[in-house]
Design a protein that fits this description.
Elements (H helix, E strand, L loop, with lengths): L5 E5 L4 E14 L3 E5 L3 E5 L5 E16 L1 H4 L7 E4 L2 H12 L7 H16 L7 E2 L4 H12 L7 H8 L3 H12 L3 H18 L4 H7 L5 H12 L3 H12 L1
Antiparallel strand pairs: 1-5, 2-3, 2-4, 2-5, 3-7, 4-6
Helix pairs in contact: 2-3, 4-5, 5-6, 7-9, 7-10
Pfam families: HTH_18
Keywords: Transcription, Transcription regulation
Protein name: Helix-turn-helix transcriptional regulator
C-alpha cells in the first residue's frame, strides 16, 4: 500500500490478522482506532466492520484465522506486541502462501496461535465518538493533533459549550478531553517514530511544550521511552 492509501469499510466472515512488514497500518471501526507500527499485529474478529489506512510505504501481510483460533482471541479488534518467534512464523506463513491444511501450515499456525495468546496487548485504542457534537471536535483534532486550542475554544468553533463537550468526553469515551488528545498524539507519535523522525522533532510536530513532557507521556502509555521505541521500530523494518 502506498503512503496514505485507504481501504474502505468492510468485513469478513472469518477472523483476520494483519501485520505491516514495513510501514504502519491504522485500523478504524465505529468504536475506535488502532495503530500497528513495527512489531505489532492487528486482530480483527469475524464480521467486524473496519477500514484501514497506511502510513509510509506499507507491506501488509494478511492472514485468515480458522474458527478454532478465533474463539481464543478477543471479541473486539486488538493490537498485539509481536515476539521475534511470532513475527518469523507469521512471515513464513504469509510469504510462502502456506495453507492451514498443510502439515507445515498447521505447525506454523499452532506457533502463531500460542504466541498470540501469550502476547501482551497494546493498550492504545483511541475511542471514537458517535455524538455529532463530539465528533466535530475530534475531527478537528484528527486533522491537526498539534492544535493547542482549549476545549472551550474548540467548542466555540464547533458550536457547543465546554461543559457539554466535557460531559460527552466523560460519558461517551470514558476519558477527559486532555486524555483523548494525548492518546491521539501518542498514536501519531508511534507513526512518526516508526518513520525515523527524531524524538525532539516528533514532540514539536505533535504539539508538546517540550520533549520531556512528550517522553513522560509516551513512556506512561507505551511502556518504553520514545527513543527506545524508535530504535526497535527501525530494527524491525531494517
Amino acid at each position: 500500500m502506498a503512503h496514505g492509501e485507504d481501504i474502505a469499510a468492510h468485513f469478513h466472515d472469518y477472523g483476520q490478522l494483519r501485520y505491516a512488514a514495513s510501514g504502519a497500518l491504522v485500523t478504524t471501526t465505529k468504536v475506535g482506532t488502532w495503530v500497528a507500527p513495527a512489531n505489532r499485529i492487528t486482530w480483527v474478529p469475524p464480521f467486524y466492520v473496519h477500514s484501514s489506512r497506511s502510513y509510509g510505504e506499507t507491506d501488509v501481510r494478511v492472514l485468515p484465522v480458522p474458527a478454532a483460533l478465533s474463539e481464543e482471541l478477543p471479541p473486539e479488534p486488538s493490537v498485539f506486541v509481536a515476539s521475534a518467534l511470532l513475527r518469523e512464523a507469521y512471515l513464513a506463513m504469509s510469504s510462502e502462501h502456506e495453507t492451514a491444511a498443510s502439515e507445515r501450515g498447521r505447525l506454523l499456525l499452532a506457533v502463531i496461535g500460542a504466541e498470540l495468546i501469550r502476547a501482551p496487548q497494546e493498550a492504545l485504542r483511541l475511542p471514537e465518538p458517535s455524538d455529532p457534537r463530539l465528533k466535530a471536535v475530534t475531527d478537528l483534532l484528527h486533522a491537526d493533533p498539534a492544535i493547542s486550542a482549549t476545549l472551550a475554544e474548540l467548542g466555540h468553533r464547533t458550536g457547543s459549550s465546554e461543559r457539554t463537550l466535557s460531559r460527552l468526553f466523560s460519558s461517551e469515551l470514558s476519558m477527559s478531553f486532555h486524555q483523548w488528545r494525548t492518546l491521539l498524539r501518542i498514536q501519531r507519535a508511534l507513526l512518526e517514530l516508526c518513520e525515523g523522525t527524531s524524538v525532539t522533532e516528533t514532540a514539536i510536530r505533535l504539539g508538546w511544550a517540550n520533549p520531556g513532557s512528550f517522553i513522560n507521556a509516551f513512556t506512561d502509555l507505551v511502556g518504553q521511552t520514545p527513543g527506545r521505541y524508535r530504535s526497535t521500530a527501525g530494527a524491525a523494518h531494517g
